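Lab channel / #folding
Pinned by the channel admin:
"Please post every new chain as: sequence first, then the structure tokens as a reply. Keep commentary short and put observations after the output so the thread stays searchable."

First post following the new format, from NK:
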Amino acid sequence: MGTQQSDALVFFGATGDLAKKQIFPALYGMVADGELDIPVIGVAFSQWSLADLKKRATESVKAARPDADAAVLKRLLSLLGYVDGDYADPATFDALKAALGDAAHPTHYLAIPPSLFETVVKGLKSVGLNKGARVVVEKPFGRDLKSAQELHRVISRAFPEDAVFRIDHYLGKEEIMNLLYFRFANSFLEPVWNRNYIESVQVTAAEDFGVQGRGAFYESAGALRDVIENHLFQIVALLAMEAPGYQGYGAVQQSKTTVFRAMRPLAREDIVRGQFEGYRDEEGVAADSDVETFAAVRLFIDSWRWAGVPFYLRAGKHLEATAHEVLVTFKRPPQALFDDAVSPHHTPNYLRIRLQPNSVIALGARVKTPGEEFVGENRELVVATEHPEERAPYERLLSDALEGDRALYSTAESVEAAWAVVEPVLTDHEAAIPYAQGTWGPEEANALIVGDDSWHVPTLKED
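Reply from TO:
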């Protein structure tokens, strides 16, 4: 379908939780921005009517945007259509085809569990709704390498790769996009952005809350699958990739995939898993569950640029704070011209990129303190990058899908390459270690750090 503008949006799972929390508010934003003026058809098996769907859309938008413009909401509701039916029933897809009318280039968004992907894809193909169309697939993209490959086979039977959009809302965040821009829009980084000058890289994705009633889901995922293999690997790819060869989606994706392929597969000694105390009491969680709510890994990228540089990644729930932050630590000066500057008690130069709760880019350096002696202190040059008018990730991603822009979407090749890295430790690992809520996870994670380094505690506010 290329970059052909879509002439209809179909979203399966229209009565579900994702639609309520994310999709309807995103659609409202797209209408408000003048980016959505095509039919939007919801599909679900809930015995709802169109009036019921419009009521849900109204409630969803007002909950997310209390100051919603009545005229914009009215325009959104006027675009809505609804097909109620079992995904396994061919009549559902006949009804959908009739509802689409003359639309020749629809985008089908599968906001449904992965177990239903094959049923829906087959149903779309059976009535020809795959021709000239796109399909948007919500993560997770499998549970391991084998299931990811099977998912790709299922979808590729009906849609060519350039018509497949694997949506990960994390990639639609302004802060993540800024990583790519910051790296390649500034020339001062390139000379030092390699193994010769960088000591280590840390990425922390911490949350101070638990599974929030999603215990049954977390039992099927865990921190390694849910956060590290996708979200944090994407951050690593943006930090570690070579400059794209040209301006375009294909070049960025190729550079990211090369990083995934260069990642050394994780071994048992490269991961520490933890489980917050009280997790087994959550609804839907097994009494003897070994699912990790915290995971820390030590990762190496065997490339010319990054050989020998450790990447430390950790993610967890019920930790001390909610903060997503990157810390790139540079090597110390090679000669001790100033005794205090090379002291192991002083932090070496670093680049700190906070992604949440607010966006900050900070360069840490040493400067001389006033006086006759050559004594210094650590200071930061800080740039706040927060913008009050940032677009919601789903709004950006759905707009891109309708336009055929795949820049923020993952390819099958990159998904499978990422799974291959974690495949060895999905089953071969130590038992999850209990940790107290409100801490930074099990102390055993400290053993992953090489040398005198230690885990960076994210900075939550600026001086």
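NK: The first strand starts at residue 8 and ends at 12.
TO: also worth noting, Residues 173-388+411-448 form a domain with the Dihydrodipicolinate Reductase; domain 2 fold (CATH 3.30.360.10).
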